[in-house]
């Protein structure tokens, strides 16, 4: 019996010490203590390793060159990968080779080929792979699924979303070689929401992508607008931008009513439902909470109980194949049809895990992605 099975806790190494890791992922382990333990940190910055390791009492800290040594030490059961998008495949494959489970930030990767390689590597190594869709465990979005599928809104036919921010100059999201661009950064929230609210996969997309004009996003798409056609002539449209004022919302419209979720995607504020049925509008506020602790707790449960995670590699691939189609459409100016894709697992209220919000620590050499 391994140490993790004996203690009923999964021991994690967090790989990467950017802003998200520092202000959200690392502190969330305090809310995941029931079955998870933070034991290692991988970062290429010595100042970060020293300060963060001391702050969280992390036993093992190392450079990226120490990755295999830490993985093969027998002290780590799982990794939480919080690296630039272009490195997700490599660090997943290396973890799988060492027999270590993988929780990987979204987007899963920057192409279908990389996603398929990650799925194959973890399957062959008999380790779990989960993509970090935090909203699959958050009440406001899970309640929205419940409303959309309940018949309360009638036949739900349209999804519409806007998700934007002003990105900080020279952020990793502005660099093409790191897998930057707004579609891969903010697009996962809109595409994923459309898919889980419609409980289906898109059949065709049409899109426009615009590069930045002010020097920040000249290498990548600053603003992307897309229309997705789903079975039954249902339509989803969204705009994402890293060059517009900050906002984040979606709306689903049915034949009897509509639901607007605004704010919808963030983790630093309360999320709000604005539900209108038969001309009557009600507002429901879902208090701010920790959205990262729940996904860690859930993934640890899957490891300890031998269950397949719902937001698995197949879920990550489902989004990435849509992103690739969107980019092809934007490049060619033509609609792009998607090959059929079957996805039986969907998030539901059974996955809701409520953990209290915490005050994020001051990050070390890791400014927030958005300009103030």
Task: Describe the protein's architecture and organization.
This protein has helices at 3-7, 19-28, 46-56, 67-71, 88-97, 112-124, 139-150, 182-198, 293-305, 313-332, and strands at residues 10-15, 36-42, 60-62, 78-81, 101-104, 129-131, 158-166, 204-211, 221-230, 234-241, 243-253, 257-261, 271-277, 280-286, 336-337. It has 372 residues and is an alpha/beta fold. It has 2 domains: 3-134 and 292-309, NAD(P)-binding Rossmann-like Domain (Rossmann fold, 3-Layer(aba) Sandwich), CATH 3.40.50.720; 139-288, 2-Layer Sandwich (Dihydrodipicolinate Reductase, domain 2), CATH 3.30.360. The protein has a 9-stranded mixed β-sheet with strand order 14-13-12-11-7-10-9-8-15. It has a 6-stranded parallel β-sheet with strand order 3-2-1-4-5-6, sandwiched between helices. The model is unreliable at 1-6 (pLDDT under 50).
Features:
372 residues; alpha/beta; Rossmann fold; Dihydrodipicolinate Reductase, domain 2; 2 domains; 9-stranded mixed beta sheet; 6-stranded parallel beta sheet; 10 helices; globular; disordered N terminus; Gfo/Idh/MocA_domain; oxidoreductase activity; oxidoreductase
Q: What fraction strand?
A: 25-35%
| Mean residue pLDDT | 96
Number of strands: 15
User: What's the N-to-C terminus distance?
Assistant: 50 Å
What is the share of helical residues? 25-40%
Number of helices: 10
The stretches of 5 or more residues where confidence is low (pLDDT under 50) are 1-6
Gyration radius, rounded = 20 Å
Compute the number of structural domains: 2
Instruction: Identify the overall geometry.
Output: globular
Structural class: alpha/beta
CATH topology of the largest domain: Rossmann fold
Largest sheet: 9 strands, mixed
- CATH H-level name of the largest domain... which superfamily? NAD(P)-binding Rossmann-like Domain
- Can you tell me the CATH architecture of the largest domain? 3-Layer(aba) Sandwich
């Amino acid at each position: 019996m391994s140490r993790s099975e004996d203690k009923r806790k999964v021991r994690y190494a967090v790989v990467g010490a950017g802003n998200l890791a520092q202000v959200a992922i690392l502190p969330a382990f305090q809310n995941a203590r029931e079955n998870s333990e933070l034991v290692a940190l991988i970062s290429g910055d010595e100042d970060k390793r020293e300060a963060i390791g001391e702050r969280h009492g992390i036993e093992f800290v190392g450079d990226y060159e120490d990755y295999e040594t830490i993985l093969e030490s027998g002290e780590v059961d799982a990794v939480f990968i919080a690296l630039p998008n272009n490195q997700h495949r490599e660090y997943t494959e290396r973890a799988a080779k060492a027999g270590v489970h993988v929780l990987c930030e979204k987007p899963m990767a920057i192409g279908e080929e990389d996603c398929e390689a990650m799925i194959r590597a973890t399957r062959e190594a008999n380790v779990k792979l989960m993509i970090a869709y935090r909203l699959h465990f958050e009440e406001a979005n899970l309640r929205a699924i419940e409303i959309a599928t309940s018949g309360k809104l009638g036949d739900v036919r349209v999804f519409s979303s806007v998700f934007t921010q002003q990105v900080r100059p020279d952020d990793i999201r502005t660099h093409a070689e790191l897998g930057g661009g707004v579609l891969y950064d903010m697009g996962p929230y809109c595409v994923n929401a459309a898919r889980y609210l419609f409980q289906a996969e898109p059949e065709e997309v049409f899109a426009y992508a615009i590069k930045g004009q002010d020097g920040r996003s000249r290498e990548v798409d600053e603003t992307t607008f897309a229309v997705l056609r789903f079975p039954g002539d249902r339509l989803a449209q969204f705009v994402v931008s890293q060059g517009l004022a900050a906002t984040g919302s979606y709306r689903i419209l049915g034949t009897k009513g509509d639901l607007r979720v605004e704010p919808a995607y963030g983790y630093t504020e309360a999320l709000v439902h604005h539900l209108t049925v038969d001309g009557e509008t009600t507002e429901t506020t879902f208090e701010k909470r920790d959205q990262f602790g729940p996904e860690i707790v859930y993934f640890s449960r899957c490891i300890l109980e031998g269950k397949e995670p719902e937001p698995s590699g197949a879920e990550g691939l489902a989004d990435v194949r849509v992103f690739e189609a969107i980019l092809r459409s934007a490049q060619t100016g033509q609609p792009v049809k998607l090959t059929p894709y079957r996805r039986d697992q969907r998030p539901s209220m059974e996955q809701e895990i409520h953990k209290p919000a915490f005050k994020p620590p001051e990050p070390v050499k890791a400014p927030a992605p958005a300009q103030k």
